[in-house]
Design a protein that fits this description.
148 residues, four-stranded antiparallel beta sheet, 3 helices, 25% helix
C-alpha cells in the first residue's frame, strides 16, 4: 500500500519559527486535520522537501524550458556541498540566475528550514486551513503533496 504525505513549508526557504509558534502551528493542524502520523522537522539551514514519486518535470522559472534531471541533480549536489545555504543557480536554458527553490517543480517541491508533515490525511487542506497556517507562521506557505 502506498502513502501520501502532505507537507506544509514556508515559501521563504530561510524562514524559521520559534518553538512557541511551531507548537501553535502543530496544535492547530492536529485540531483541524486528521493524520496517521505527524512529522515536524526544523534545522538551521534549508533542506529539500520533495514530492516523492509525484515529480514528473522541472521547468525554468524564467523561460519555461524543461530542465534536464541530470543538470538538476548536479545543481543539487553542488548546493548540498554548502548545506543548501546558497540555492542560487545559473539556468542552462537561458543563462538567467535563479534559485533551486524557484524552479517550477511538477508536483511542487521546495526548500525549508521548517516542515510539518501529515501521513495519509483523509482530505487535503482547504483554503481556510492554509490561510490559518499562513497567519500563524507569518508568511506564505507551500503545501507539498508527496506520494511513496
Amino acid at each position: 500500500m502506498s502513502d501520501t504525505i502532505v507537507r506544509f513549508i514556508p515559501a521563504d526557504p530561510y524562514h524559521r519559527l520559534d518553538e512557541a509558534t511551531r507548537q501553535r502551528v502543530v496544535d492547530y493542524l492536529k485540531r483541524t486535520m486528521k493524520a496517521d502520523i505527524w512529522d515536524v522537522q526544523w534545522q538551521e539551514k534549508p533542506f529539500f522537501v520533495d514530492c516523492g514519486g509525484n515529480l514528473d518535470v522541472i521547468k525554468c522559472p524564467v523561460c519555461g524550458e524543461t530542465l534536464d534531471f541530470r543538470w538538476w541533480g548536479d545543481a543539487m549536489d553542488a548546493s548540498f556541498e554548502h548545506e543548501f545555504s546558497d540555492l542560487t543557480v545559473t539556468l542552462p536554458c537561458c543563462n538567467a540566475v535563479s534559485s533551486l527553490n524557484d524552479l517550477r517543480y511538477d508536483f511542487l517541491c521546495g526548500f525549508a528550514c521548517e516542515m510539518v508533515g501529515l501521513l495519509n490525511p483523509p482530505a487535503d487542506p482547504d483554503a481556510a486551513v492554509l490561510a490559518a497556517v499562513e497567519r500563524l507562521i507569518g508568511c506564505p506557505v507551500h503545501v507539498i503533496y508527496a506520494h511513496y
